[in-house]
Specification:
The complex is a heterodimer of chains A (about 100) and B (about 170). Chain A is about 75% helix and about 0% strand. Chain A is an all-alpha fold and about 100 residues long. Chain A has a single domain, classed as Orthogonal Bundle (Helix Hairpins). Chain A is elongated. The termini of chain A are far apart. Chain B is mainly α. Among the domains of chain B are: about 1-75, NADH-ubiquinone/plastoquinone oxidoreductase chain 6, subunit NuoJ (Four Helix Bundle (Hemerythrin (Met), subunit A), Up-down Bundle), CATH 1.20.120.1200; about 130-168. In chain B, α1 runs antiparallel to α2 and α2 (about 30-50) runs antiparallel to α3 (about 50-75). The longest helix of chain B is centred in the middle third of the chain and has 25 residues, at about 50-75.
Chain lengths: ~100, ~170
């Protein structure tokens, strides 16, 4: 049987990789993919806690359903915004989109 | 070593190296395909946790829908980076600082979480996948979040159409 700690450490490392990707990438699509990695790390945590601590009520699984739904909404909106930026500015690099910076 | 532990190690290896590939590679298309592999392996982890329904949802939504959407976005935008890494870089100039931030975060999380004693259910993890019970719980106890999430999805749908529509 796999100890609960293993799942927690694995998802922590996965979340860390996602943080690195969000900070170090400048192509907006790759930033979104890194955000997806972070979403999934959180979902693995939810599922592991659900299976190990509250197996009968399945709270974590239900939270994961809601998290997946809002994640799907997020990636749809994000890609639409990227397409909009590309149409106006011919670039998808996040460091070139600086109109709101003073 | 039990079979479950072996499967966990193998899946963790594939997931973590796939995620590392996604954040390291210079070829965006390879990153998207590796995203597909990583998400499928995360679905296998859900299977290891006896959550068959969520494993199926993971394959459908993340491995299927999200990857297809990202591929469409890639086709509709022109990246100035070439697949061999020449041209404009896909990374910014702050890789060192990003690495330090991420490593610091990981250190804090491991320091806080590993010594914790979790109240692990003694029969865990014995959950058998019970979609009927899950549906009953959602529609009895979580009906308000369910309705809110459907409104959020509708708003996202309309918002995407409004954003991506060509102005005339």
């Amino acid at each position: 049987m796999v100890p609960l700690q293993y799942y927690i450490i694995m998802s922590a490392i996965l979340f860390t990789i996602g943080i690195y990707g969000v900070l170090a990438r400048r192509n907006a699509i790759l930033v979104l993919l890194s955000v997806e990695i972070m979403f999934n790390a959180v979902n693995i945590n939810f599922m592991a806690f659900s299976a190990y601590i509250t197996p009968a009520t399945m709270v974590g699984q239900i939270y994961t359903i809601f998290a997946v739904a809002s994640g799907a909404a997020e990636i749809g909106i994000g890609l639409a915004i990227i397409l909009l930026i590309y149409r106006g500015r011919e670039t998808v690099n996040v460091d070139e989109v600086n109109m709101l910076k003073w | 070593m039990s079979g479950q532990l072996l499967a966990f190690w193998a899946l963790s290896f594939v997931i973590l190296s796939g995620a590392l590939y996604i954040v390291m590679t210079k070829n965006i298309m390879h990153a998207v395909f590796m995203h597909l592999l990583t998400m499928s392996m995360i679905a296998a982890v859900y299977g290891l946790l006896h959550a068959d329904f969520m494993a199926a949802m993971q394959v459908l939504i993340y491995a299927g829908a999200v990857t297809a959407m990202v591929v469409f976005a890639l086709m509709l935008t022109k990246s100035q980076s070439r697949p061999d890494g020449a041209g404009i870089a896909v990374d910014n100039q702050q890789r060192g600082a990003s690495f330090l931030t991420a490593a610091g975060f990981l250190a804090v999380v491991i320091y806080v979480l590993v010594p914790q004693k979790w109240a692990v259910h003694e029969a865990a993890p014995v959950v058998k996948s019970d979609v009927a019970a899950m549906g009953a719980i959602i529609f009895k106890s979580y009906i308000l979040p369910f309705e809110v999430i459907s409104v959020i999805l509708l708003a996202a749908l309309i918002g995407v159409i409004v954003l991506a529509r060509k102005e005339d």
